[in-house]
Amino acid sequence: MSHLPASFEAIYQRPPTVVASAPGRIEVLGNHTDYNAGLTLSCAVGFRCDAAMAPLDEPVALLASTAFDTPPERFPLTAPLAFAPRGHWANYLLGLATALQERGHTVPGFALLVDSAVPRSAGVSSSAALEMAVLTGLVSMMQLDLPPIELARIGQWAESRAVGAQTGMLDQLSSLCGQRDHLLLTDFASGATDTAPLPPGWVFVAVDSGVKHDLTVEYNDRRRSCEAAAEAMGVATLREASLEQLDKHRPAMPAEAYGCAKHILGENQRVRDAIDALGRGDVERVGRLMFESHDSSRHHFRNSCPELDRIVEYAAQDARCVGARLSGGGFGGITIHLVRGTDAERYRGDLLSHLTPADSPPPWSAVCAIDDGAKLVT
Ligand code: GLA
Questions:
Q1: With a threshold of 0.85, does the pTM exceed it?
Q2: pLDDT digits over 302-352, tens only?
Q3: Secondary structure element (H or E) that encloses residue 97, with its range
Q4: Which of the listed residues 160, 195, 230 is the one where a domain comes to its end?
Q5: Ligand 1 site, CB within 6 A
Q6: CA 174 to ligand 1 centroid distance, Å
């Protein structure tokens, strides 16, 4: 980070006028509930993406990243998405510009250098960190004051246009609103957020399953099943349905839709129960809810896989871990483990040596600090 303004100046021969920073996130409970107007518990993590920016006189975006040893690429802002090459990271940012323009804002030309320490494709949402860092910088340059829910909506739009997954806003809101050492409770029916401290001494260990997920197919498919269940019950969203209603309408819906809705209703309740438990400082209860959540993913929502299950099964027989589950979209990606900070490194090492065949590199893993959300650095 400290080198970013100097690196920007070396590339663009002028200092940045704005530097913004945004973190990755982990989903603690409330799996796939965000796009079902449900409840989530998440946190921002200490892996951050920094974005240095300065306005330009012409309507173009000059985009560079410290991850690539190449000169800035130039994209016109007159019709940004039309010029985004498929699969290029610029898609996320040109998507942000397009979303702002579609809301009637004039996006000025800008030069950008990003520097991200958020591991990519590791399940901690490096894309949301990138989007929210750049968007925070961009709206500051434009002197726009938009509420977090609107910034998240812009990021979600960019993400769905860039990647094709019809995701919710959990990743963006967590990256924006997270608070150090706290869990973030979000109610997606209203967009309201609140925080609850994680009792001191506890941390999350993240362990990648090594299975890469493509969210475009299964994710969208599960989303349709949730919508089908809501439709069969005659409600606008699953948030309005009860377990009794679900059981009553079971014969009127496909088995997948029933399973998905059962998971979502269960997840909403587990978030409520976790908030109660946090209020009493009962971390073990939060852990048990995490194991229950994984079980529900595995059997009802069917977004787990053997590799994720194997990791969570290890966690369940290790007394140092009070709870573990898949986190995020699923179908691969990461698991999270709630352990005491004093046990975390040793637990992580033991888990990895148990899981990793002698001739393979261990998958990505980390002890995650809970950090603040997006902010302007200068
Ligand atoms: C991904 C999506 C989020 C959310 C989670 C599952 O991370 O980007 O919007 O739906 O999956 O809870």
A1: yes
A2: 999 999 999 999 999 999 999 999 999 999 999 999 999 999 999 999 999
A3: helix 90-102
A4: 195
A5: 27, 31-32, 34-35, 167-168, 170-171, 328-329
A6: 11
